[in-house]
Amino acid sequence: MDYDIIVIGSGPGGYVAAIRASQLKMKVAVVEKAEIGGICLNWGCIPTKSLLKSSQVFEYLSHAGDYGIRIEGEVKPDFSAMIARSRSVADGMSKGVRFLFRKNKIEILQGKGSLLAANAVEVTDNEGQKKTYSAKNIILATGARSKELPNLPQDGKKIIGYRQAMTLEKQPRSMVVVGSGAIGSEFACFYQSIGTQVTLVEFLPRIVPNEDEEVSKQLERSFKKMKMRILTDSSVESADTSGNICRVRMKTPKGYEEVDADIVLSAVGVTPNTDGIGLENTGVRTEKGKVVVDDFYRTNVSGVYAIGDIVHGPALAHVASAEGITCVEKIAGLDPAPVDYTNIPACTYTSPEIASVGLTENAAREKGHEIKVGKFPFTASGKASAAGARDGFVKLIFDAEYGELLGAHMIGAGVTEMISEIVVARKLETTAHEIIKSIHPHPTMSEAIMEAAASAYDEVIHL
Known about the structure:
There is one protein chain. By secondary structure, the protein is of the alpha/beta class. The chain is 32% helix and 26% strand. It has helices at residues 14-23, 38-43, 45-62, 79-103, 162-165, 182-193, 213-225, 279-282, 317-331, 361-366, 382-387, 415-427, 432-436, 447-456, and strands at 3-8, 28-32, 107-110, 112-117, 120-124, 130-140, 144-146, 159-160, 174-178, 197-201, 229-231, 235-240, 246-252, 255-261, 263-266, 270-272, 286-287, 290-291, 304-306, 346-348, 353-358, 371-377, 393-399, 405-412. Strands 1, 2, 3, 4, 5, 6 and 19 form a 7-stranded mixed sheet that branches. It has a 5-stranded parallel sheet with strand order 8-15-9-10-11. The longest helix is centred in the N-terminal third of the chain and has 25 residues, at 79-103. The N and C termini lie far apart (66 Å).
């Protein structure tokens, strides 16, 4: 065998798996057809956060007077410079992963990887040259791509996916964003913040529909405060791109409506990259477009594993990384615990941010829990008032009988940095009163966690 492990795909699942395998003294190669680091580093998590930071700085400068700072002249966004900075950040992160590969003696096989057999991978380079490599174990980590709707085919110019949304040549005056999940909401927030008139269209009754209902309502209020137009219970029926602009026909609760926009961004989810990777050559089993695996990411074919967006579970970078580590440690003969999918944090980097983990209030009731709910608004937070970021709240859900922390739902400035406290607390089976009695520093946004726990038990001080 040429290698102990070949990983197909270098995203946050693949590159993390490769590095952990190298740490465990295995000979490793990674097959990558595009940029090292995959979609997350190059076209997803990292560059979008760079764009959102640019829009946040623009917002600060636009409201500098609120903080006692006078700026002479008009503050304007430089769209091209924002895009350039985003690409530079992504390029730096990709180079960082290349460095980690060199440090850990991981070989990069540049090209498109496909299974030939349970222990063989064919790599086709950019010139069409094919070469076969063998390995004791093969990990599929091929990720996902933007999902296309049949009635909204992406042309990459007027009807685009997330990849084109971060490399547009000029800022659109108007945009229709279809889908209000994390991707759609983040791009809607970015473009609205810098002056594009955004219409956000959601098929379900509320935006960010996977979040707690109160969080959805708060984000909608915040978006409307930005002058964004929100259409829920609505769908895009068609988009006419024959003219200079897109004429978008939508079905809304009030009937059919047409809206003109420079750009339509389709953000209705992702499609797993399971086609063209040789699953049919080995008989690897799939179900509903995803590879079927066990708790340690073994497929039905011995020696073939799959992680990340192509298997069950949420399509999140940190989930793929955890799966990659668990998979490799099992291959190495260690005794890792399976990934706990009930304790996966989700973050949306809008303004305000959203962070959540565990059960929503409705889900907890549906599961038959008697619950106690504690909520602390940032309007009552000294740090939030000082920072000028009073929108949002922290909401905690506890089991009434045992005090178990069932879920946490936050919306506000910086909450994506606060959610880890809850993830660790749930991992350690921390109870409500242990949170209440854990002294939080003042003034901080994170005090709201302690106060929300106290609120659930009628012990809150600052409400």
